Sequence to fold (192 residues):
Amino acid sequence: MRDLAILTFVTLDGVMQSPSMAEEDPDNGFAQGGWAAPFWEETMPRVAATAMAAPYDILFGRKTYEIFAGHWPNAPKSDQSDQLNQAQKHVVTSRPDSLTWQNSHPITGNVVEAIRELKRQDGPLLQVHGSAHLIQTLLANDLIDEFRLWTFPVVVGTGKRLFGTGTKPVVLAHVRSETLGNGVVGQTLRCA
Fold:
């Protein structure tokens, strides 16, 4: 049995949409893309050290998979690119034949049961990167064991939220937290 953890960047008002670049995810006219980029230099080394150091497999929604697959296979060689390229990637998709990034495996059909089966298997942590719509399914079906949240001192007003409308109440246990000099707060929280 292995755990499933959410690794995500959020604004103070809970938006997780398009943290890196304006063109990353403009769904619904979202014009605030790139809100986290001014904080990357100090934040990303801490994210790598605290949330990405141990081996993990990745669980993606299709849109986030396409964003990552469009960058990481051709990114300059680094510990992070090696880890992401070598990881097993499980992708919720209706187009399984179009997964071209190495070690990519489609999840089709009954997504909830397929993810439960992945969790029952031996292996490293399953870590979700981005994937706002997928996270809503995971929340609704009690499939999340841990949140690895990085909250940025930014308010954007609208956009895809980590905890969408209708999210079930849950109690979280504090595991660790830290505040960076740039105001970004990293927290690890376990579902009780």
